[in-house]
């Protein structure tokens, strides 16, 4: 029996117990790559529009791309931090507060879009709509209204076959 014990210990001489490895550190680019890429693309369109003539096809494209990509940035970042209760376009988290603060939290995405749309509307109203940046302000305002509309509409309406639309026909409750 003693020989077996020595043999077992001899075979385990080079064995080291498994140590828990630390998870690899997540880098900023890994954790926020989509946001960083979208902001980078928006910056590219902005820079290209600054040096282009808005009356050319490329200039008109760059101006419109600013509006489209600013909307993408808002949706990417906005739906990460803000919610809209009942909308499939945002995460559904229980409110950490009650009362008015809870209502504001549950509708923070739509409130943010509404407040910033008012800002874009005021900017557009003060600018010449046919000017270089007036066209962009109008396009951004249009993008904001579209995003707010989609967030609002997805609270009640569904689209069959869309992964964002919950199946309203099936019930999670079992009939008795």
- Please report the distance between the alpha carbons of the first and last residues: 65 Å
Beta content: under 5%
From the spread of the alpha carbons, the general shape counts as globular
Mean pLDDT reading: 81
Low-confidence stretches: 1-8, 169-176
Share of helical residues: 55-70%
Structural class: mainly alpha
User: Main sheet, how many strands, which sense, barrel?
Assistant: none
Radius of gyration: 27 Å
Give the total of beta strands.
Answer: 0
Task: Give the count of helical stretches.
Answer: 6
The ordered string of helix (H) and strand (E) elements is HHHHHH
Question: What's the helix and strand layout?
Answer:
Blueprint lengths: L1 H10 L16 H23 L6 H25 L18 H7 L1 H19 L5 H22 L23
Helix pairs in contact: 2-3, 3-6, 5-6
């Amino acid at each position: 029996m003693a020989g077996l014990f020595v043999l077992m210990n001899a075979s385990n001489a080079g064995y080291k117990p498994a140590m828990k490895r630390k998870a690899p550190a997540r880098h900023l680019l890994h954790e926020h790559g989509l946001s960083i890429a979208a902001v980078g693309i928006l910056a590219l369109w902005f820079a290209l529009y600054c040096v282009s003539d808005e009356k050319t096809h490329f200039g008109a494209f760059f101006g419109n791309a600013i509006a489209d990509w600013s909307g993408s940035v808002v949706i990417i970042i906005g739906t990460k931090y803000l919610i809209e209760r009942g909308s499939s376009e945002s995460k559904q988290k229980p409110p950490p507060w009650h009362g008015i603060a809870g209502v504001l939290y549950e509708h923070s995405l739509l409130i943010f879009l509404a407040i910033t749309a008012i800002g874009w509307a005021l900017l557009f109203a003060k600018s010449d709509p046919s000017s270089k940046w007036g066209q962009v302000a109008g396009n951004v305002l249009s993008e904001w209204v579209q995003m707010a509309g989609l967030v609002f509409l997805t609270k009640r309406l569904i689209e069959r076959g869309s992964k964002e639309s919950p199946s309203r026909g099936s019930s999670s409750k079992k009939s008795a």
